[in-house]
Amino acid sequence: MSISSWASRSRNRSSRNRPSWNGSSQHGRWRGPAAAAVAGAVALSLGLPLAGTASAAPSPGVTTATGSADGRSWTVTQSGDGYRVSLKLDDALPVRNALPEIAVDGTSLGYADESADGRTLTLETRDLRSAHPDDVRVAWNGATSTAKSDGAYKGGHRPSRPTQTAEELTAAATAQGRYTVARADYDFGDTALTLDGLGGKPVEERAAVWVPTDAKGERPVVVFLHGRHSACYDPVNARTNNAAWPCPAGYQPIPSYLGYDDAAQTLASQGYVVVSVSADGINAQDASFTDDAGTLARGELVMDHLDLLAQADKGRAAGVSSLLKGKLDLSDVGLMGHSRGGEGVVKAALLNSARPHPYGVNAVLPLAPIDFGRETLPDVPMAVVLPYCDGDVSNQQGQHFYDDTRSAGADDDVMRASVMVMGADHNFFNTEWTPGVAVAPAGDDWSARTDTVCGTDAGVSATSTRLTAAEQSQTGTALMSGFFQLTLGGKQQFQALFDGSQGAATTVGAATVYTEVQAPGSSRSDVAPLTAAASNVAVTGAGSGVYCAGFSGRVTTSALPACTASTYTSRFPSWTPANYAGNVEATPLLHLTWPDSTSAAARSKVTVEMPKGGRDVRRYSTLSFRAAVDETSADTDLTVSLTDGRGRTASVPVSSLSHALDGNPSSGTSTLLPKTWLQTVSWKLSTVHGVDLSDIRKVVLTSPSTAGGAYLSDVAFQSVTAGRGGPSDLPQVSVAGASVAEDAGTVPVKLTLSARGKSPVTVNLQSLAGTGTQLATAARKVTIPAHATSVTVDLPVVDDPTVETSADTVYKVYVSVPRDAVIGQNYARVVVHDDEATA
Question: Other C-beta atoms within 10 Å of 258: how many?
């Protein structure tokens, strides 16, 4: 796609037993007396005090809010120590067996009293969401609905909230809330901790803490973890040093943990306690003293700080501000990790879920993350943020967190998103990594300044998509703040930042953002994942449809052919070979190609037959699938059609719904660009006419008359909501090391589950070559049978005549991409003794 044409574009988790913390159920978002006072209702932190803890009692009879939309009007009046919500409808409610409810901002607050004429509903509540609602409507059985003009609710899918403009969303996500914010930083020095994942080396225990001082009750906690930057700097000579910890004489630690101040301040003002953790000690030592580049150490660091915060909440942490006593709701925790910190917070969430009494890690946001090990994170709402002009993690390998976790757990019931931020680099989400703002030396990680897409030279300003540092910081703040207010605070308006409902693209601040999104399992019907041949999927016409995975020239666990012959791995985030899982299958999908064809009958088609029990799609909001134009084609298009049981068809071009089949921008000179990245195409079912949505028989994708190609996956009907997750209760799979003599023939590597699985668990085992020649680099898929707790895999050992450089050679093995389990200990060492050695 040309630069000019690109620039011209508009730019519940299912019921299961939840773990508890200190004996308190994690189902509620707040703990303590306030929660009991509202009989378990969830209170939001968006400018509202907790029920029963307001600074002043409500004044009876005072109207706090009015509003109207779509044939509805509402009034909220303070009543006693609560609120009276009155909803008036233009048309009478339909006659139903279910009792009517009132929903505020997308969440039902309970059953309502109905007037005799069926046009007025009233509800008495102490839930403070009702104080200043954005939207009030009817709900049935917990799901929102709309009263239609004929008195009957037609269509089974859940109507969307009134659309907000992108400017309003950004303004709301970055707005300062009602609470006064104070700092409660703590610092126990550069050697306060030792981490097993760092070989017992010492690191600092230091964090910046933002506290909403006048917010009553315990508040949700958000932890930030920065990535790998130089640990130390010389303020006199403007030099950095990452070779020693603690910092050598003349140097001091770089305060990378202070680089997310805007996002922290914003969230704290909205009622969250934000803790940003320093990880300089890990950065200075992870290259020499770890087997996983410091991922485990970073996860341990986060868990150490959560343990410290738990003591601070009880008033038992010496050296920590008393502002934190009784302030922290550790049953409601969000984690954000930038760069190496992205994989670090995923690891922290997994470490947490392995504990007998885990904290309530209910949301994770990896920001420009690495993903060396391809660990999955089901059961926890997640949004991966990818910067298009990333010059550091330029292959955007963090996309694997989204791709790999989509099918990782059968009961997974949370939203998962991946967003591409056009014009953003890797560093400028952190002000301490931004030149001109940072106290230490910093730079733009996109080094090709004259590149016409991502460069910053004045000579390319007319075509460059680059955001300014301030614009990127604002976009990062909006995404971080919006995500945690959505997932922890229940503010449904911010879902539009992540679900693609704004249209072909979302504008967040000055940035154009594209989206992939997967709805919770309970509100999604996967009719064709398109990962392998299926009986209900047929490809016909003059073209071809090939199921494929990854790059050519790699020996992998996949039996599928490669999707691309390109050697530019940074251009294909979904297929980036992971450091510790380089031979593991990556993101299988359907590659559809077609020739020029003037005959409509000869055009290529992908036809998905609907299963008999899944033809009624009225309860879903969209027909969705992922798509990208392939790297050999110009901008292209497909037509998507729905056919019902009477043969009637509704069709729409993909280009009217999404930019997915437009090529991403490239200067033609960078090996990093363009990116081939699948976007979610969403066709709102409310706009589909002329077919019976209760009897859909086929979904068809048809090629245009001009030749082209596209990658396709994940055909589904879905209604995107954030869902409510928490620590996964899937068993953890771990690998153990072994030691053998070279002439043993094989080395037994044992994989163990933390608990018996109800279904078979699959996981990939990757061996990496060491300095010796006895154990080859290879990967294999391993199945642990249902109800079993372990399996032993015999890896071949070559008994060769070579005298190794060491009598004992250490090799490493890793497990990755599990299904129906999560990763526990993901690496181990295999030691092979050389029988030619003299010692």
Answer: 18
Two tokens, residue 294:
């410091």
- The two tokens of residue 677 are 């990245």
Question: What burial letters (b/e) apply to 750-764, b meaning 16+ CB within 10 Å?
Answer: ebbbbeebeeebebb
Neighbours of 392 (CB within 10 A): 17
Instruction: With H, G, I as helix, E, B as strand and everything else as coil, classify residue 742.
Output: helix
Which two structure tokens, joined as six digits, stand for 536?
């209900």
Residue 718, phi then psi, degrees to nearest 5? -155, 160
Structure tokens at 437: 């703002």
CB 398 within 8 A of CB 366: yes
Average pLDDT in the chain? 88
At 576, is the secondary structure helix, strand, or coil? coil
Q: Are the beta carbons of 810 and 762 closer than 8 angstroms?
A: no
Taking residue 527's Cβ as centre, other Cβ atoms within 10 Å add up to: 24
Residue 89: strand pairing partners = 72
Q: Print burial letters for 432-443: b (CB count within 10 Å at least 16), e (below 16).
A: bbbeeebebebe
Residue 412 phi, psi (nearest 5) = -55, 125
Kindly give, in sequence order, each residue whose CB lies less than 8 Å from that of residue 755, ignoring residues fewer than 6 positions away.
731, 789
Intra-chain end-to-end CA distance of the chain, in Å: 63
Look at the block and give the residue holding tokens 């059953």.
Answer: 111
Do the Cβ atoms of 518 and 533 come closer than 8 Å?
no
435: left (phi over 0), alpha (psi -120 to 50) or beta: beta
Residue 3 forms part of a structural domain: no
Instruction: Find out whether 235 and 252 touch, Cβ atoms under 8 Å.
Output: yes
- The pTM assigned to this predicted structure is 0.82
Is residue 253 reached through a cis peptide bond, with omega within 30 degrees of 0 on the bond before it? no
174 found inside a domain: no
- Whether residue 256 contacts residue 231, with contact meaning beta carbons closer than 8 Å, is answered with no
Residues 11-68 pLDDT 10s: 233 333 333 333 333 323 233 333 333 233 323 222 222 233 333 344 567 888 898 8
Quick one: 100 and 191 in the same domain? no
For the chain, how many structural domains are there in total?
4
Q: Is residue 232 part of a domain?
A: no
C-alpha to C-alpha distance for 411 and 523, rounded to whole angstroms: 12
Asked if 326 and 309 touch (Cβ cutoff 8 Å), the reply is no
Nearest-Å Rg of the Cα atoms of the chain is 27
**Does residue 567 lie in a domain region?**
yes
Owning domain of residue 418: 181-226+255-521
Which residues are bridge partners to 507 per DSSP? 512
CB atoms within 10 A of CB 567: 10
Q: Average pLDDT of 84-97? A: 75
**Section 632-660 average pLDDT:** 97
CATH number, residue 765: 2.60.40.2030
